[in-house]
Amino acid sequence: MHRTLAAALTALTAAALAVGVALGIVAALDATPEQPNVPLVTFDRSGE
């Protein structure tokens, strides 16, 4: 009985930690500013 309770508490703690980490990653990704979609190289097409 004692081992079963310890295993259940360990699994519950691991699940709670995984959910917390996932929420932290989502919050960190939402906190980063949107990057502008500007090309690094442009070619002049006026000769066509």
Question: Can you offer a commentary on this structure?
Answer:
This protein has 48 residues and is an all-alpha fold. The protein is built from 1 helix and no strands. The chain has one helix at residues 2-31. The chain starts with a helix and ends in a 17-residue tail after the last helix.
Describe, in short, the structure shown:
The chain has 48 residues and is mainly α. The protein has one helix at 2-31.
List keywords for this structure.
48 residues, mainly alpha, 0% strand
- Alpha-carbon Rg, integer: 25 Å
Give the percentage of residues in beta strands: under 5%
Question: What is the string of SSEs from the N terminus onward?
Answer: H
Tally of strands? 0
What characteristic shape results from the CA principal axes? rod-shaped
List the helices and strands and how they pair.
Elements: H1 2-31
